[in-house]
Fold these 4 entries.
Entry 1:
Amino acid sequence: MSLAVYNTMSHRKEEFRPREEGKVGMYVCGPTVYNYIHVGNGRAYLVFDVIRRYLSYRGYEVLYVQNFTDVDDKIINRAREEGKEPGEIALLYEAAFLEDMRALNVKPPDVAPRATETIPRMIEMIQGLVDKGYAYAVDGDVFFRVESFEGYGKLSGRSLDDMRAGERVEVDERKANPMDFALWKASKPGEPAWDSPWGKGRPGWHIECSAMSLHYLGMGFDIHGGGQDLVFPHHENEIAQSEAFAGTEPFVRYWLHNGFVNIQEEKMSKSLGNIILVREILKKYPADAVRLLALQTHYRNPIDFGPEALEEARRAYERLENCFFALDAFMARPGLRTAPQRTQREVALSDSFFDFERRFEEAMDDDFNTARAIGVIFELAKELNTYLDEQERYQTPAAPMVASHGRDTLLKLCNILGLFSPEAVEAESRGAGASSEETSGGFPTAERLIELLLEVRAVARENRQFETADLIRTRLRELGIRVDDLRDGQRWKYVGPSA
Ligand code: AMP
Ligand code: ZN
């Protein structure tokens, strides 16, 4: 079965055939590091994280490159506002971005180049474009001559006339065409600057991504991703520069763009001031609930990240989590023995696990249809819950084996989407419960106190004082701490106060 991906360039789904068999090179435009990222940006990185995970699952060797734009007007302005150096601002927000990605359980890129570390490559490209007549220098700036590149507009499907009408371009008398864009910008005093054949200056944003992607992946790499707002002008310009420089095409085989996160039907963006930061949302909701919300809609469609949608996603996440807990609790029953003889019902159920996997793959092969894939996961969870209910009435000899197979299948499918991933579970148990810090400023830490309460609760249960045990659990839940009973004791987790 083949994988189909929607290519923005052709406006249709195409069979995915990478440049080199078994290998995928992908480049995703990274953040401009001048503030904390919002949920809209978060969606873009979650989407490409899942695409990358699925390609790896499909057996491709994936090389994932995602840059940091660490020199830009926005960074310079921010530094000026805060009385800091631009480099300081960039490092600060780069670290914050990495923290947010870890919290969202997005896998780190294989290569994460900073624009400022690839400047010689950018200068080389710009010089090449000047030499070939695609670019011209004026007063220390260098512009790309859009009219010199025949395919200009092929990604966004706009003609130069449409572009001029649609964009508010500042009039700059020095440009041959108002749509010509800067490859190199002369620096003003006090701004970050590098030596170049055109004097001191810095690269434009578009050439940064061309230089970095070509440096690590070479012409004709497989997937270039980003949000839909990057189609024009950013990606259109990347194509023009890269193909003009190389003298060949294509720059990229498949262009993938995620839809927006909207707030009341308006794009979430810093300029509109309607943003919710990733770090704010993660204080209230588990990362997997946010991931689930992002993936319950196909990546090319818009999503509204309102409070109701978030609460619904939290409930959905808890349904899955409960299914895992119920399976674990079942398999942990004392004295449970397993025998291989399955009932007819169990044979059919075990067979259906393979069917669930197949349907999951079919959904993902259809342009990464995570919405459908998640539907399959919930159906499987429902089947498993029904099976566990049946076991309450009559326990069959092969039940532990069948339940374990079901659990493995459920976990496998979740993991492909980055849900309930082993890395995240490990980080969480390091952060909670197993804290190495026993005290903070002489006081016992919250973790120690929670453990103490759970010890008391265990004794209460042993003495059949269930009211006390339940009271401890309910009161902890009110404080945002969820307690579950597992085979080897109790497990707790901070999930935030219930709404
Ligand atoms: P930026 O830092 O603005 O360049 O954005 C980083 C990534 O987030 C890019 O791929 C953008 O296209 C994407 N992005 C920005 N805003 C949104 C939004 N509201 N919804 C989805 N993706 C977005
Ligand atoms: Zn880019």
Entry 2:
Amino acid sequence: MLLKGKKVLLGVTGSIAAYKSAILTRLLVKEGAEVQIIMSTSALDFITPLTLATLSKGPVHHQFHDPKSGVWTNHVDLGLWADLFLIAPISANTLGKFANGICDNLLTATYLSARCPVMVAPAMDLDMYQHPSVKANLKKLKDFGNIILEAETGELASGLSGQGRLMEPEHILEYVISHFSKSQEFKGKKVLITSGPTQEAIDPVRFISNHSSGKMGSALADTFADQGAQVHLVLGKGAIKPDHASIKIYPVTSAEEMYQASSNIHHQMDICVFAAAVADYAPKNVSAEKIKKEGDGMTIELVKNIDIAYTLGKLKSPFQIHVGFALETENEEFYAKSKLEKKNFDLIVLNSMRDAGAGFQHDTNKVRIFTEEGKSFESELLPKNQIAELIIKEIKNLPVKI
Ligand code: CTP
């Protein structure tokens, strides 16, 4: 009974997939959830309130007031009652209304007044799902902080085949269970993450940089935000931008700009993760004009950039956690441990270029983690979001009280 004591408000809209809401209701109830249901008017054409009421053992609402009894259904109370408002299936129509604040039935009114997390599982035909307006509406909901359970791929009611099928009720149940089991351990905590490459200008058209994609930093930002943190992501040019309402992005280009943006907010942070691949050197003089080709060779004089992690490490308070990264090609453990000490990190994440599928650009990573108190941990080769979860788990195990 993984959902015992959880209150789930299930919204059902007009779609062929509405029949699957009966299976979903049964699964939620079986796991111990208390379920109330709101149907949109057009959902009534696809499934009856009697079916859903019988399976949910609870009320099914579809109008503001019952004309027979005259009883008023308070959408504000419904929104406040729920621990989770799950709309499955959500049609393109209701999605469009949610995205634009349209409030013309009990379901849409409840959406606007709900204070709990909202999860939507779209179902529609192939071309509808691909339409830019639907995509834009889904993005809007994501930006509002709602959770999107992407449609699955397979045979559609129209006979076409592709993405658009309502996620299978068993899969939706897994997401609901994982939503409730995920801790909000970082609620109220502020996390600084530096991520991506820096670019050091040579002249107006050229720069020195590296292959960092920012994927690891983005995965960390998303995972911290999912666990309730307010994330401040100082992001180098061209790096992957995460898309989460609790992540504030500070776009920067050079190491100096990355340092300025980070040091401005460092004192307010509980955790700082230095995931950026900062260029160690920058051209001493940046030419105002494009450098013209002359002679057979050229020399660019470079000067050392500020070391962001080292400089802020000296300002670290006993209530802050600093996490660093090291990407090495040889003597990996030795170099990582020296950086851990030199830069005053509580924990360092080592990537070795010798591990296939790890490091820059990949969607996967394989890491070794060393802590200041001498603990170590080695991961498998895993997708970067799973690596982010492992790193965060080790951060939670640190002795520092934040
Ligand atoms: N770092 C930083 N500012 C720099 C250089 C590095 O904040 N100017 C941070 C990185 O984000 C990382 C850690 O320091 O968390 C180690 O970075 P790395 O480039 O591996 O170390 P360096 O000190 O630059 O050493 P080297 O390049 O000689 O290996």
Entry 3:
Amino acid sequence: MNSQAPNLQVELPSDRISRRSFLKFCGLMVATLALPARYIDTVSKALATASRLPVIWLEFQDCTGDTESFLRAAQRASPLDPGQTSPSIIDLLLDTISVDYHETLMVPAGEMSEKSLNDTLQNYAGQYLAVVEGAIPTADNGVYCTIRGRTALSIAQQVLPGARAVIAMGSCAWDGGLAAASPNLTGATGVKSAVPGLANFVALPGCPANVVNLAATIVHLLAFNELPPRETDGRPYFAYGEEIHENCERHDFYEEDQFVRAWGDQGHRSGWCLFKMGCKGPRTKSNCPQVKWNDSTCWPIAAGHGCVGCTSPHFWDQLTPFYQELPDD
Ligand code: SF4
Ligand code: F3S
């Protein structure tokens, strides 16, 4: 990262990011964080003057789904201006951060990539944001995931303690996710148990994690100099404070006992409740109904599929079979 990287104030207004888009972005972030609208001013001033936050993005035992989620937010159709060719969430997010190291996306390879990592660690000690994607295998001294001959575990132990904040991006980085599902032969686990004692840790589980929640977390860090309030397991309340079931657009059908009973039946075509088809919305906390996916255009239940509970602890083991109705509590 260039330590003199321009901040938003220098860049705005520009052809790429208008003042209007910037303020819309701030409004979306404040709404996502469930803050009163008066904080738009606080957030916009903080982002306009903040230097870019250096980011080290580590990718371990994963499918790169969270990186895909991150990149997909770069689609030009944006929730900021649906249907318009305006700056997207990621355009604006990338003006607040500098992704200095990302094994999948970076141009340098081999020794040069290692130099990028070491330069950031050295030049921005205590200032960089560490994002972890993927689980960390711990069995047999972590040998089941290595990068340049080093185990994921040793890289995490080197990088995470010196970060300003650590974000576990996605379910695998949170609690091991799919990699930790039974029988978990590699001893896969999440960031917090692999590297205990991290002070500034936040988890954004999901399979994958939603980039709007990533953006809101970073905005909160920059605007208030701290991570958003969160549960002891690291999940921030703004994104994981309420059950999907309570905010679901099909909830009235649930209350009226109007259930889909077979894929494609009349109830399914009419948008009725998916509980009998295995929906795990009543056991899952997430802001999916509000934030949605694909540029805020849709989300799983709106698309006609039940929630599989991908933001819940150990959902691969605890919420399967996915198409089986939840038992009574
Ligand atoms: Fe609840 Fe799922 Fe039915 Fe929505 S579709 S009301 S989350 S059970
Ligand atoms: Fe995951 Fe359920 Fe949302 S499956 S993406 S938490 S609707």
Entry 4:
Amino acid sequence: MRIVLLGPPGAGKGTQAGMISKKKNLPHISSGNLLREAVESGTSVGVKANGYIEKGLLVPDLIVVDIIKDRILKNDCTSGFILDGFPRTLAQARVLDEMLLGLNNKIDIVIYMTASKESIVKRLSGRRICSGCGANYHVSYVPSLRNGICDKCGGKLNQRSDDKPETILERLRVYRDQTEDLVRYYRKNGILKEISCENNIEAITKNILDVLCRSSL
Ligand code: AP5
């Protein structure tokens, strides 16, 4: 089963990808996490990518596509995966389709996650990430038991550098300009299913699982 989670920053793609990954036993592939890992390791790709991420801009297609291709070719992806944050442009979607076609595969479903600008800004400005294990929290909606400390590994919780208010607005602008074309592309292909993500996390997971079940996935 090959699933794409598409939607604006803060719609909850990473959160839901984590939940569905456990339920369906599929690897969660986040282009943002892969890029941030490259940044942290100080690779040449990471150094190039960081300049774009910090400004809230998209990293050039060539860089992201290579990272995702390498990841999809790993053994744990043979029976499927959940893509979170990729593709982000029409060019990326076309490369992905071509690559999967070459492997006699295809994307089965695209879950289009929508949320209001107000919810998005609240979610992103309150998000905290564990510096140790990468667990995702929110100061109000998903708080840790001890302020600023991860429940799972005791690591320090940090704010992502691109979750500053001005960068959030830039990311939303970039999403509108560059990513919304994808909605039309996948709708035309007949595999887009839209889900409102204004609800709580558990209710959204249930909706996504229901949609997958109705699509016999
Ligand atoms: P990326 O890491 O992909 O960020 P994004 O798409 O902007 O999405 P986010 O991770 O910010 O949000 P999300 O939808 O996953 O929400 P989450 O579940 O965390 O990309 C970062 C950057 O990398 C890009 O700007 C770009 O520079 C680069 N990049 C990445 N992919 C690229 C690509 N393909 N091409 C080019 N460049 C690329 O939830 C957010 C918060 O809300 C959390 O705190 C969570 O706990 C909380 N929350 C989630 N759901 C709910 C809910 N239902 N109710 C209340 N709170 C909730």
